[in-house]
Every structure is written in structure tokens, then in C-alpha cells.
Amino acid sequence: MEEANNKKNDYEREPVPLALRKGWVPLSLVWIAIGIDISSMLLGAQLGSGMNFWDAIWAVMLGSLLLGIMGAVCAYMGAATGLSTAMITRYAFGEYGARLISAIIGISLLGWFGVQAGFFAQNAQTALSSVLGIEMDQAVLSVIGGLLMMSTAIYGYRALEKLSSWAVPLMVILIVTSIVLTIQNHPFSQMAQTGLSGEPLSFGMAVSLVIGIFVVGTIITPDVARWARTRKDAMLASFVGFFVGNSFMIVVAIILSKAMGTSDLTTIFLALGLGIPAILVITLAQWTTNTSNLYSSSLGFSVVFSKTPKVWITLIAGLFATALAYMGIYDRFITFLSFITMLIAPVGGICIAEYYFVNRAAFAFDKAHRMLIARSLVSWLLASFIAYCTTAAPDGLGLFHLTTVPALDGFLCGVLFQVAFGVASRRKQQAEEAATKG
Q1: Distance between CA atoms of residues 178 and 181, nearest Å
Q2: Torsion-angle region of residue 23: left (phi > 0), alpha (psi -120 to 50) or beta?
Q3: Contact 199, 61 (CB under 8 A)
Q4: For the chain, what is the radius of gyration of the CA atoms?
Q5: DSSP assignment, residue 263?
Q6: What is the dihedral of CA 283, 288, 290, 295, to 10 degrees?
Q7: Burial of 198: CB neighbours in 10 Å, binned 0-12, 13-18, 19+
Q8: What is the end-to-end Cα distance of the chain in Å, rounded?
């Protein structure tokens, strides 16, 4: 009876028991599955059309490396505490602050779910029409896709792990097949000489977009890392997952778009004679990624609505996100990506600073936590504003540059502000205690 209850329990409001935790391999498969998605392919196609071949590849590698490092550092916190991202924010922002941050993360992930479901519908429509002769409306397909992806998220992490364990090998086989077929007729030397077919992108902006497409994923790594057997398992799985999973599909898209002269990746698959496999890749890629989006969103809302069962939270959130897809939120992909980057990247920096440099002892489930930590909210607002200032117009102000990567600007500023305010607060408290004793 107890074992059955453990299988149903997703531990959304408490630490995952050590006896139920996993090694790094199954966790890596989860992250790789999440990283293989249609939005990554769309971004890769945009990089391929706006940059020369090798600049695009290096931008992807650098962005993915930074994501891997950020994810590994955040994953350590998840394994150490056994808690989800939303629960961890209680120790950095306080109870009320955590509800605000968790709500923002949850809403952002619902928007991302809608974007991904929209991408699925757009590509599935082309594939079904060309391969099977079936004509379906995109809006209807987005609803079908959203409901399919929602069905797995309801069952929590264990369902996500099982889905990833068989989806990843199948997707990799199909995608590698497409690359082999492409390279046979279009060698790398030919791709390197292909000119730009879209709006030019700077190297810094390209790196920022690569980071931005998965920056929320690095911040929410504790949602998966809390299931890691050791902290080393968590960090290794996260780094491998982000570096390999995130870069894989983007590089594939760059190669295919450069070789075939189009950014429509469904058309590319069909041109290679991979009709049915194209439908499978599209379905599996979005299914695994969107299950994760809704899963983490429901963990966030579980902190906001602490008395509501997670199953109901997931169901309601999934229906809302599917409605966003139906209304066409995916049409604003790049704008949405930039907006997420500005608000969410600083959260990871603040939690890291608080855990590693300011007050690690407070990150314990059995310890009382404060209701509000104002300095953390100030750090978040300032870091988000700086990210907004360094993001190019029209999505940001474009007033100045720091690292040339707005997502990284927000993350690093979150770290710096939190450390500065945390040290100042600690010194003030020490001075007050000394004055009281004196």
C-alpha cells in the first residue's frame, strides 16, 4: 500500500525520499528529450539563414555550454535539498516572494506550452497533408496536441522519465538518418559557402537566443534534479542534457536549412523522403518537451495554490495553455522568448547567490523560512530591468551592452545584486546584534 502511494506521490511540496532517487543516465535522457523540440529546430533555421555556417555552429556551442554550466549549478541545489524550483525560491524570496516568482515561472511555462503546441500544429498540418492527404485546421491540431501532451504531465516525473526513455533513441535514429541523407548530397564545404537568406544576426544575439530558448529550463533544473541520487548525478545529467540536448536539434536545423535552402523543416524532411518519420519526430519532440513545461508549471502553481491537489492544477493549467495555443501565441515566438529571458534568467542567479554565497543554512526543509525577503525582490527587479535595457529593440530598449547576451546579463546581474545586498544585510544584522550586546 505504501509503495503504491509512493508511486502516485510526486512530492511537489516536500523533498523526494532518497530511496526513490535515480542515477544520472535516466535524468540525462529526460533533459535530452526536453531539448529535442521543434522550437529548437526553428531557431536553428533562423540562425542558419542569418549567419554563415561556422559562426552559427560556434554560437550554438557557446550558448549550450553556458546553459550546461548554469543548469549544473542550479541542479546541485535541487539534489542537495530534494525540492522543486518553486519550493527552493521560498528560501531566497520568502513565502510571499516565492508565490510571486512561482506564479511568473508557472505563467511563462504555460505560454511556452502554448508556443510549442502551436509549432506542433503548424508542422503536423504540413506533414499530414503531404504524407497522408489529411487536411486539418491548425487550431484543431493545436488542441489535439495540447491534450496529448497534457495527458502525460498529469502523472508527474515518472511518466516523463518513461516517455523519454523510449522517445529519445527513436528520435535520434530518425534525425541522424536525415542528416546522413543530407550530407551525402550536400557536403560541409558547400554549406560553409552558402550565403545569408534571412535577416543578419550578430554573434552575441545568436548566443543570447540559444540561451534564451532554454534559460527557463536551467532555472527549473531542480524540478528534475531533486530526483537525482547524488549531487554529482544531478550536475552531470544536467550538463550533458543541456549541452547535448539543446545543441543537437539546433545544429541539425542549421545543417538541414543550409543544405536544402529553406527554413521549413517539415518540408525538408518530406523532401528527403522521410514522411512518416517526420510525423513521428514532430509528435515525440513536442510531446516530451511540453510534458516538462506543464509539469514544472504545475509544480510552481502548487506553491501558489498550496491546498489544491497537483492533479487538478495540472489539468486546469493544461487546458488554459492549450487555449493559448488555439489562439495562436506561437506567432510571437521571438518576442515571447525575449520576454521570458528578461524575467526568468535573474531568478536563477538570485537563488544561486543566496545558496552559495549568502545563507546556505536557510535552505533546509525542516527550518522555518521568512515571509518576505525584500532584497531578493529588489535584486530581481534590477536584474530584469538591466536585461531589458540590453535586449535589442523592439523587444527591449537596446540602450547598452554588457556581455552582448541579454539572458546572461540578467543571470549574472541577479548573482551580483543578490550577493551585494545579502552581504550588506548580514553586516547590518551583525552590527545590530553587537550594539544590542554592548
Answers
A1: 5
A2: beta
A3: no
A4: 22
A5: S
A6: 150
A7: middle
A8: 59
Instruction: Please give the full DSSP string across 371-407, using - where no structure is assigned.
Output: S--HHHHHHHHHHHHHHHHHSPTTTS-----SSS-HH
pLDDT tens by residue, 366-403: 776 788 899 999 999 999 999 999 887 877 888 988 88
Here the cell at position 262 is 529553406
DSSP string covering 212-249, please? Answer: HTTHHHHHTTHHHHTTBSSHHHHHHHHHHIIIIIIHHH
CA distance 52 to 144: 38
Please check the confidence at residue 148 and state whether its pLDDT lies above 70. yes
Look at residue 2 and tell me whether its pLDDT is greater than 50.
Answer: no
Instruction: Report residue 6's pLDDT band, with 50, 70 and 90 as the boundaries.
Output: low
Cα–Cα nearest to 225, from 392, 59, 84? 84
Predicted local distance difference test score (pLDDT) of residue 192: 58
pLDDT value of position 1: 40
**Burial classification of residue 427, based on how many CB atoms lie within 10 Å of its CB (0-12 exposed, 13-18 middle, 19 or more buried):** exposed
Q: How far apart are CA 394 and CA 412, in angstroms?
A: 23
Q: H/E element holding 239?
A: helix 231-240
Q: By the 8 A CB rule, do 86 and 105 touch?
A: yes
Global model pTM greater than 0.85: no
pLDDT at 234 over 90: yes
Task: Give the model confidence (pLDDT) of 161-177 as tens digits.
Answer: 787 777 778 777 877 77
